[in-house]
Amino acid sequence: MYLDVPFVSQLDFGGNQHLDDPTGCWYATACMIAYSFEAGPRQGVPALYSRPLPQADGTVRMGHWTISKGWLPTLMQNEHLVELDGGLPATTEALEVELMIWGPLFLPWIKTAGGSSYGHASAIIGARDGSMIYHDPENAPRSEMKLDDMRAKLAAGWPLLRRDAEPFSYMAGIHA
């Protein structure tokens, strides 16, 4: 099953402007979760939206700085996020239950791409056959990874987050 969660990219967005925000994964993930509950602009962490980012066309735009644990309480407060009790569920069946109750989940993890590893954030949107389905804001919607493989990639000390909302209150549809 997977939730019909709107995908938000941190790369090549802005229509014809082709903007990139290489360290904006945490903001894009917070947007995906929030848009499953309500429309409207997101707040994120305004103090972190001050990084000059050179773009492919030679212009410089503002983007997001990497989020540190010190800023996590601000993000959680501004975007109405709380820790998911128990962290990442042990089975895909248990993950499906959490997703049906709480909606998409904010996943902080360590990603390896292009020969380097770095902290990253994605939105868990589904589970099936021992794998989790997630929107990776690096232009990879509905990606899949074995749950045990992802468990090994969890960012140490960073909690899995959910929306601070009533159970079953998200607006996303569920697909079998």
Describe the structure.
The structure is a single chain. A hairpin with a 5-residue loop joins strand 2 and strand 3. With 176 residues, this protein is of the alpha+beta class. The model has no long low-confidence stretch (mean pLDDT 89). The longest helix has 11 residues. The protein has a single domain, classed as Cathepsin B, Chain A, CATH 3.90.70. It is built from four helices and ten strands; from the N terminus they run βαββαβαββββαββ. The chain is globular, with a radius of gyration of 16 Å. A four-stranded antiparallel sheet has the order 5-6-7-8. The protein has a two-stranded antiparallel ribbon with strand order 1-10. It holds the Pfam family Peptidase_C70.
Topology diagram in text:
Layout: E1 2-3, H1 25-35, E2 51-54, E3 60-63, H2 72-78, E4 81-83, H3 92-102, E5 105-113, E6 116-128, E7 131-136, E8 140-146, H4 147-153, E9 161-163, E10 174-175
Antiparallel strand pairs: 1-10, 2-3, 4-9, 5-6, 6-7, 7-8
